[in-house]
Amino acid sequence: DTGVSQDPRHKITKRGQNVTFRCDPISEHNRLYWYRQTLGQGPEFLTYFQNEAQLEKSRLLSDRFSAERPKGSFSTLEIQRTEQGDSAMYLCASSKTGTARTEQFFGPGTRLTVL
Amino acid sequence: GENVEQHPSTLSVQEGDSAVIKCTYSDSASNYFPWYKQELGKRPQLIIDIRSNVGEKKDQRIAVTLNKTAKHFSLHITETQPEDSAVYFCAARGGNYGQNFVFGPGTRLSVLP
Which residue(s) pair with A22 in the sheet? Predict the structure, then answer.
């Protein structure tokens, strides 16, 4: 499968615990995005990488959230001291520069439930 | 920053009828407007997109129109089929670097047989 993959697909954790999600973009894509989606809402932008550089962060991304893309390939999103309000689907997307299409391809998401 | 509104939130049509979903955006600098379809439990998938230098684009039963002056764009689905039932999201490309998408809240389309 050459699409965007995310791991794990589901995560249940207790409030106060730390969690880390991984995203593997399409191999030739140099841009990687993280979004959060709650039930009945559209995806909300969290942060964006071009290669290994984190170029933009939403104000939704509190100090408890950190994202990395150390080698410009896969990315991780860590949430520290999880809160019940963090329960959501976390979507990763990737795209490629230098093409006429600017389509972002989405992964299947990681559904986080904080108890 | 960019803000995208979308209407209606739910839409039911009879199979074979047309469906129209409308979105408005706030940032006149936005220049790319994709539409995504998300079936239950699945990832969003692009169905059609339009750039700000084009007023209309069509792909088989799906079309999108853009009015830059009024800052609104619409998705048109003709000859609807049950498999068109899903949540549809419009988006506008925004952000400081103009790369992230700002999504509307979604429209749940139900095509009744």
Answer: A7, A76
Alpha carbon of B17 to those of A27, A79, B60, B66, B105: distances in Å?
Answer: 40, 45, 15, 22, 24
Measured between alpha carbons, how far is B49 from B67 in angstroms, rounded to an integer? Answer: 14
Closest alpha carbon within chain A to B89: A42
Cite the DSSP H helix spans in chain B: none
pLDDT in tens, A38-58: 988 999 999 999 999 998 888
Distances (CA, A) of B58 to A84, B30, B71: 43, 21, 19
Q: Phi/psi at B82 (nearest 5 deg)?
A: -55, -35
Give chain A positions within 8 Å (CB) of B31.
Answer: none
Within 8 A of A105 by CB-CB distance, chain B residues are: 46
Cα–Cα separations (whole angstroms), residue B79 to A1, A100, B61, B89: 32, 30, 7, 20
pLDDT digits (tens, 9 = 90+) for A58-98: 887 889 999 999 988 999 999 999 999 999 999 999 998 87
* Rounded Cα distance, A79 and A83, in Å: 9
Range 70-109 of B in CB contact (< 8 A) with A? 89, 91, 93, 95-97, 99-106
CA distances (Å), B46 to each of A52, A104, B108, in order? 25, 8, 16
